[in-house]
Each structure stands twice: as structure tokens, then as C-alpha cells.
Amino acid sequence: MSAEEKDVPTAEKSSEAVEITESGEVAEESSGDIAESPEEDAEPARRDRGMIRRNIGAILVAAALVVSAGVAGWLYVYQYRVDQQINADAANVALEAAKTGTIALLSYSPDTLDKDFATAKSNLTGDFLSYYTDFTEKIVTPAAKEKQVKTVAAVVRAAVSEIQPDSATVLLFINQTTTSKENPDGAFAASSVKVGLQKVDDRWLISAFDPV
Fold first, then answer.
1. Which of the four, 25, 94, 176, 193, has the lowest number of CB atoms within 10 Å?
2. How many Å apart are CA 188 and CA 69, to the nearest integer?
3. pLDDT higher for 12 or 112?
4. Residue of 127, 124, 106 lying closest to 175 (CA atoms)
């Protein structure tokens, strides 16, 4: 074999080698690009997904807090404050009922006993109503007629000490003036009482009357 013949395959081989090498290099670069690209691209992608998940989590937490705050605000505005207002209104109604009933209970005149006692009883309920009815019929009426007893009561101070949907307790400070045949100039007395109330048919009625 001549040197020329030997050189040709060598050149071809060399050319092929170069081409292969170049292809290999290109292929390696391409292969490297392909092999490295998913890893390089995957890492930022994972970071992005992680950040997205964290951001979504933060957004959800923030949204939950906002919703919670909104619900709390709604409950305060539409329920708690309304309940406060209802309780305040109920307390005022109970207070007035206690004052009105007590004045009727302790005020009477010998000329209008039946009317006065009937008015008083319309503000009472339960066992106390039964007690008052029995007491006025058996003791107060005979004494008031015989001695011409007249009493006038006034509430000077009052406060609700406890209130529930259907019950309340009110503390009253009372001034009472009593006149009679034996004492026409009158006798003055100051006292305090704890008035128990029960709600009956949407009305506050006196169910207990205890001196304190």
C-alpha cells in the first residue's frame, strides 16, 4: 500500500474523527445543554413554585385573618352592640317598672283604697301578689279606714343591680310620708328596698320586695 493510499483513509478517519469530535463536542455541548438545562431550569422552577406556595400560603393566612377580623367586626356591630343596646333598653324598662310598681305599692289613701290596691296589684306577680292581696285585705284596709292612714311614696334613687332576659333586681331608695288622725302632721321615713322583677307577657312585674 502506498503512502498516499494510507494517507487518504487516515485523512478520512481524521476528518471523520474531527467531524465526530466536532459532532461529539457539539453533541456534548448540546447534550450538556440538554442535560444541564433541566437541572438548571428545574432549580429556579422549584424555587419559583416554593415561593408561589409560600406566597399563596401567606395570602390564604392573610385572607383568613381578614375574614376573621371581618366576622368579629360584624358580630360586634350587628350582635354585641345590638345586645348591649337591648340590655340597656331592657334595664331602663325594668327600672321604670320597679319605680312605678313600688310607688303604687306604698301609696294609698283611705278614700280610694280599693282603687289604690287594684293599681298596686296590677304591677305584681307570683307569690308576692298573693301575699300583698292577703296583707292589704286583712291588715292594711281595716287600719287605714279606722285611723285614716294615708301614705305617699317617692323614689329618690334607683339602680338595676342585675338583669336577665326574664328577671331583674333593682335597688330603690324611697322616701315615704304617712299621715293619720293621730298624726295629721305626718311622719317621714327613708328606706331602701331590693325589688325582684319577673317578665310576664312582655311586662316587668314585681315578684319580690325586700327591705335592705
1. 25
2. 58
3. 112
4. 106
Using only C-alpha atoms, the chain has a radius of gyration, in whole angstroms, of 49
Q: What whole-number percentage of the chain has pLDDT above 70?
A: 59
Q: Which of 163, 158, 173 is nearest to 197 (CA)?
A: 163
pLDDT at 192: 95
Domain 1-212 in CATH 3.40.50.150: no
Task: Judge whether 158 and 172 are in contact, CB under 8 Å.
Answer: yes
**Spatial separation of the C-alpha atoms in residues 94 and 160, rounded to whole Å:** 8
98 and 195 Cβ atoms separated by less than 8 Å: yes
For the segment 132-186, what is each residue's pLDDT rounded down to a tens digit?
A: 999 999 999 999 999 999 999 999 999 999 999 999 999 999 999 999 999 999 9
CA–CA dist 160, 88 (Å, integer): 10
Is pLDDT of 98 > 90?
yes
Residue ranges per structural domain of the chain: 1-212
In the chain, where does DSSP find H-type helix? 3-75, 81-106, 113-121, 126-135, 141-147
> DSSP of 48-62, one letter per residue?
HHHHHHHHHHHHHHH
What letter would DSSP give residue 124?
B
To 10 degrees, what angle do helices 81-106 and 113-121 make?
160
- Reference 180, options 207, 140, 132; nearest CA is 140
* Distance separating alpha carbons of residues 191 and 210, to the nearest angstrom: 11
